[in-house]
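pinging the channel bc i need a second pair of eyes. not urgent but kinda urgent?? the chain im working w is below, pasted from the shared doc
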Amino acid sequence: MKIAVTVNGTREEWDVAPAETLLDALRDHGYRGAKRVCESGECGACAVIVDGLAIDACIRLAAQSDGSQITTVEGLETADGLHPVQEAFTANGAIQCGFCIPGMVVTAANYLEMNPQPTEDDIRHVFIGNLCRCTGYKKPVEAVLASVSEEVGRRED
């Protein structure tokens, strides 16, 4: 079946199988940032933003995304550079093995759209759907808090 999606600002038409997941379709079309890990919506490594909401792409059928706006971790970067969350994860050493990081970055960036001044507890709650075996969440939480303070500084300049 044919579907039309807009991925990272570019409209595309895809042929997808009725049972094909959004994760499979994205990866088949070159978007490799969303990682295949649990395939059951438990780990968050495949998080993407669909129509303004971070979701696990492994449990959504591609056909359900017909007409949707999709943002992957690759799409967070703009012509001006990395998204503040991407910058902060790098600058604050929040990246270890890297498997969960794209999903964490997407989840955090999406949440900051809804709550630009989160507390540490807010961020920890948002990361409930993102499993990480390497970092213990300390560095990713610190990175998101740093991205918020850096973004506030940019707005004041």
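so The longest strand covers residues 2-7. and The chain has six helices and five strands. — does that match what u expected or am i reading it wrong
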